[in-house]
Amino acid sequence: MPHINELREKIDKIDFDIAKLIEDRVEVAREIGKLKAIKGLPLEDTKREREILENVSKCTKLDRKFVRDLFRRIIDYCKNEERHDCGSRT
Q1: Which of 30, 33, 38, 71 is 20 to 30 A (C-alpha) from 7?
Q2: Counting Cβ atoms within 10 Å, is residue 37 exposed (0-12), middle (13-18) or buried (19+)?
Q3: Residue ranges making up the domain that contains 40
Q4: Which residues have a Cβ under 8 Å from the Cβ of 54 and sit 6 or more positions away?
Q5: Whole-prediction pTM
Q6: pLDDT single digits (tens) 1-36
Q7: End-to-end CA distance of the chain
Q8: How many domains does the chain have?
């Protein structure tokens, strides 16, 4: 049986990886925001957001509501970053 400290180290690594992946996602969202600004497209794309929430909630054994709520927060954060970078277009 693994020692508790070994398991905690695993969790620390996973947490770091999750944070880094979210950071990467924010950077990609910023790039999308810049392209939308150049093309005159709105930052909001509710259809795409619904697709993301539906897809991620299906791809895990975790509670669907939990996953949807988590990704809703991530999406909202990304949109706020896009707005900050590109002005307050909706």
Answers
A1: 71
A2: middle
A3: 4-86
A4: none
A5: 0.85
A6: 889 999 999 999 999 999 999 999 999 999 999 999
A7: 53
A8: 1
